Amino acid sequence: MSAPLEGLRVIELAHVMAGPICGLFLADLGADVVKVERLPHGDTTRYFSPPEIKGESAAFMMLNRGKRGVALDLRTEEGQAVVRQMVSSTDVVIENFRVGTMERMGLGYEDLAALNKRLIYCQITGFGRNGPLSTQGGLDLIAQGYSGLMSVTGEGPGREPVKVGAPLTDITAGILAAFGVVCAVLERERTGQGQRVDTSLYEAGITHTYWQSAIALATGISPAPLGSAHPMAAPYQAFQTKNGWINVGASNEGTWTRLTEALGVLELSTDDRFVTNADRMANLADLIEILGLHFRDHPTEYWLKLLEDAGVPAGPVASVGEMLEHPQTQARSMVVDVEHTTVGSVRSLGIPVKLSGSKEGHGPSGPRAGSPLLGEHTRPVLHEFGYTKAEIDQMIATVVAQEL
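RESULT FIELD:
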């Protein structure tokens, strides 16, 4: 079965995370993604270790599976000329360097769009192409701080600021960029014209503040961190049990009443402090103290069974390892095996979007090849773009290009 983006040619001039995440999603949807790495060292993520698997960075292999790899020295006019030739017959370019970097090499949007009017140029930066912060470089930590995320993440007011454990703005920016690219592809079908797709880590962080921004815009008051609690509904948070932690989401009147029945404290449902959600939010500290005493009486497994039977949403606080081995993760094909040239079979995260017209259980296009070695596909890819064997040999001999 064909994948939805089959036939779409993508040049990924990106490094580390946000850009490669965009390329990863497009590759998973069937696009032919050619990752162009800058010589002499390639993508910085190749050196994110430990851990390594047979000498290869686990981080690099996670983000770059399903792509083909070309290595060029983009500091040279010859290397830049190769990119321009590739772009003249490609659909999408992805880059996530600091604003101005690609322009200085003659590889900015205006330069490349002049060669190919159908080109979709996806640019991911720290803060976007315009505005007072546009020239600053972007890191997930910095974006989480600027976007307000770190002000609402943590145990409570007055405690040390805490960033979200995952590089949330990097990953989200990559997903938003892939969404923007697909939108631009659809519009190009109508107009025949390409365009620039522009997003940033900063905006990716902002998109995760919908509830908190709703509060701040309505009241003028910025919400404070609440640990695992919800800013608008209660009880909706983690509780300590006899042997661990459990998340409980009794955030509407029906589940709240069923929770009090399951705990044997039905009187709380008519307590003036807890009758409505607004009451429970106003008396949150009292509510959590009372419920917490009950949850500590039994282990997590006891509560999971009891609350499931009662129809109250609940779940454990799983470790990453526990999540990876969970039967639900396996059932959704969220851990897959891909074949790497030197490492062999490598476990990787699967495709989080399933399409009914694709191979069952494997998302839009199924498991694909592992990540490329540095320059692994330089020769065949350059040949596809019109270079002769002699021209490729010359580029490799002068270290403009590198092959495996």
